[in-house]
Amino acid sequence: MKVIELYILRRTLAIFVAALAWVLVIVWTTQVLNRLDLVTTSGQSAATFFTVAALALPAVIPIVIPFAIGLAVAQTLATMNSDSELVVISAAGGPRTITIRPMLLIAIIASLASFAIHNTLEPYSRQSMRHILANANADLITSVLQEGSFQRVDDGLFVQVSEHLSDGRLGGIFVVDSREEDMQLIYHAREGAAVQSDSGSILAMRDGEVQRKSGDGSVSVIRFDSYAFDLSEFTSDDGEPNLQRKDRYLTYLMNPDPDDKLYAHAPQKYRAELHKRLSEWLYPVVFALIGIAVAGDARSFREARLHPTVTTMAISLLVRWGGFYAGNEAETNPFFSFMLYAIPIGMILISGFFIVTNRVMELPTSWTERLLERLQSVGERLSRLRARFSPSSGGRA
Question: How many Cα neighbours within 13 Å face the side chain of 221?
Fold first, then answer.
């Protein structure tokens, strides 16, 4: 590798590591805060909390890596352009591959690392976390049925308990179940209790009613003296967790167990997860190519309406949003499984076209003008607020 390529490699790698670290800390912190109730309500130790916090990290890394790569590539090229380094390389007869090759090398390594983490380390950490949470959730009353607040037990299932009575009973039970499509069930009972049976955990409710709302808008209300709501699928007596599709290794997704109840209930979701595992590792290369297509050409920034880093991040966000949307839709519509591959591969081809033809990838002019107008408006409002509350103005408008 040439000296100039090593120079570009070091600069890009430094920005990539810095961006990855800062964004990772921010995103990871939001994930960790969701686990604070593990210590505050279930009586687990601080060591358990930090273990769960560490296990949450592998799930965040593959999401952050592509954006860190895109930011590093765009910022490196923008800085080299402003310092006239790209112009010097071009004037010296250096081909564009001198700047492109080291960046693509980092992107390819990041893609392979993302694939490895997404399909090995992340499933391991998720399974380990579920074992810890399953052991902590053996007592469902303390970990899920928290007093005075709605608790999410599963997608579309929420439980709220008004109070814990002294004799172990629960007062004021409220359950919302919208897991089935075009059907919503709302349970309300004056009292009840969480009990254990041979089949697992059961929420026994007394003196209440259930409201059933169908997709056509019809509502029916049924009163009951006693009703048992099965919670065994969410927590097991022996502390063994129920593994979801995201907790499985790639080999299992390729050949799932036909006796798996979760797979038998929603096989398309498992197929969608498999296609996501096989396609999402491409995004570091996609974002790197977007950055090169946007900022890889030697030119004056006066020609650009937006800074190349802003343009790169805006296009990358649009592409990644398309990937997330296709992933969600693929759980119910097999056609979007194809889109999971078409979006990153299509963007690779589009970015490659801009690079090969020496064209600059930019946002549409109308989008850029609207964005600049919004930014200018926000800047003017901030200036007015700053002037209004500055000491010289005495706090008066």
Answer: 4
| pLDDT, tens only, 360-378 | 887 666 666 676 677 777 7
Q: What contacts 24+ positions apart, CB below 8 Å, involve 363-367?
A: 363/306, 363/311, 363/314, 363/315, 365/305
Phi-psi region of 168 (alpha: psi -120 to 50; beta: other; left: phi over 0): left
User: What's this model's pTM, rounded to 2 decimal places?
Assistant: 0.68
Strand partners, 176: 158, 186
Q: Residue 66's pLDDT is what?
A: 94
Mean pLDDT of 84-94: 81
Name the residue ranges covered by the structural domains of the chain. 3-135+247-363, 140-230
346 or 24, greater pLDDT: 346
Question: How many other C-beta atoms lie within 10 A of the C-beta of residue 152?
Answer: 10
CA atoms within 13 A on the CB side of 180: 10
Q: To the nearest 10°, report the CA torsion of 375, 379, 381, 383.
A: 180
Contact at 8 Å (CB) between 355 and 289? yes
Q: Is the dihedral of CA 65, 341, 98, 307 positive or negative?
A: negative
